[in-house]
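Lecture 7 notes: from sequence to structure.

We start with a single chain of 117 residues. Read the sequence below before looking at the structure.
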Amino acid sequence: MATVDEALYRLSRSKFRSSFHLSEKDREYVLDKGTDKIKEHAHDIIEKRLAPSSIPNDGKQTPTRGHPVFIAQHACALCCRGCMSKWYKVKKGVALTPAQIEKCVNLLMAWIEKEMK
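Now the structure, written as tokens:
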């Protein structure tokens, strides 16, 4: 996986990925909960929805609204293992390592923090 800055740059050059933005409601949620709590949510979401080696509804597990992390997942191509494979060469059918999970969370949080500015 690339560095956070490299990944954000590549994503910004994609018409589809760069079309995602936090809504005013999402921004308020981040401000209300704080970035530490949002980071906890991001970690839980990645661990439960992307980290397992087998995901029964892969490609359909990430909503496009309802939580700032969901929006960030789509913006960062961390919404399903198919997108992760295409963008970051993460193999399908293999569980994510703790280091990979942490990289995903860091990328999501960097995107969210950038959106909050």
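The radius of gyration is 13 Å. Keep this in mind for problem set 3.
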